[in-house]
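S1.2 Input.
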Amino acid sequence: MAWAERALGSNARVVGWRRMTGGIIAAVHRLTIECTGHRCQLVLRQYEDATAENARLVEQEAAVLGAVGPADLLAPELVAFSAAGIDTDGHPSLLMTRLPGHIYLSPPDPGEWLRQIARTAASVHEARVPAPPFQRWADAANRSIPVSATRPHVWHAMSAVLRQQHGSPASCFLHRDFQHFNFLWRRGRLTGVVDWSMASTGPPEIDVGHCRLNLAVLFGVDWAERFRLAYEAETGRAVDPWWDLHAIAKYDDAWPRFIPVQVAGRVPVDSDGMTARVEDLMESSLRRL
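S1.3 Output.
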């Protein structure tokens, strides 16, 4: 908090703070700031350890937040950052403006909710923002089949496609963790996208596929398919199913454990049926090849 005050100037004072819901890889706090009689709220994002990777994530997010403003995207504004954590007790930290809204997982009109997400994805992919090439998280073609798998043959089919074929080489700006836990809503309107630490350049399907995977995990393949169709209608281009499968391959037996942490009681989570819903999505994507 002392670092935040120094970054804001001699007239600023932190008068309150609160841990915000979520934050699996980093802690997120809301700070209430008082400055010459005026109060505002900022968001402080901190990583536990001052590793080279965490420092890189902070530096990358700071650079992206500095660049997305001119692109008119729904992103926070950068206030200050300490990549090495030297000024923040060893915790790589990022201070940014707080966007209005909250995570919203129970829309009365899922179709409109998904259309707004699709429009936001399209606006991200159309933005001319410099970012490093995306890094593949693992060898998707050689992933182990989850213990919870109910249709092993579908996993084998997906791995064969990822080994034997190649996806579209199209490239654009990506959020890279584009999914409903990073969207803020207010009065039924999508007001912000947060967590830009992994922003990259690469095929747009990386974002689309990751969002579809998360939608299937929580709501089912129907929501994932409706999002794909909404994105295709918004952009006028088809989603390459190869990259779709590449995104789905990220799923493993850890997801039923950490998804409830992200949901934080906002909606019921059917953990037992999660893998089967992902397999439904895999079969749907395989049929589109």
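S1.4 Remarks. Residues 123 and 212 are 17 Å apart (CA to CA).
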